[in-house]
Write a structure and sequence with these properties.
Helix content: under 10%
Number of strands: 10
Largest sheet: 6 strands, mixed
Order of helices and strands: EEEEEEEEEE
Length: 118
């Protein structure tokens, strides 16, 4: 059974940082590209960042380019999102997806909430 569990969300001030984690189980982590997506209140799901299954390439939405860094630790079957210089518009529920960019995948976690506010 595929399971993705996100953690690390919380409240941050504008300009602050948070590090999200996603622990995967129930499948061979190294066989899949992974990604992060987010859903702000009242809005649709937005792709944020993706990483190839071998970690060789990372891609970012223009809105987070230069501020967010995606990484993976295959030994821990974990995916990470380092978020720096946070902005109020980064406030959203963040999800880990077992896909590179398919927002329709059924393989995603329950999400972790990020609020950026002073």
């Amino acid at each position: 059974q595929v399971r993705l569990v996100e953690s690390g969300g919380g409240l941050a001030q504008p300009g602050g940082s948070l590090r999200l984690s996603c622990t995967a189980s129930g499948f061979t982590f190294t066989e899949y590209a992974m990604s992060w997506a987010r859903q702000a209140p009242g809005k649709g799901l937005e792709w944020v960042s993706g990483i190839y299954r071998d970690g060789s390439q990372q891609y970012y939405a223009e809105s987070v380019q230069g501020r967010f860094t995606i990484s993976r630790d295959d030994a821990k079957s974990s995916l990470y999102l380092e978020m720096n210089n946070l902005k109020p518009e980064d406030t959203a529920q963040y999800y880990c997806l077992r896909s590179f960019r398919d927002l329709g995948t059924r393989y995603r976690g329950q999400g972790t909430s990020v609020t950026v506010s002073s």
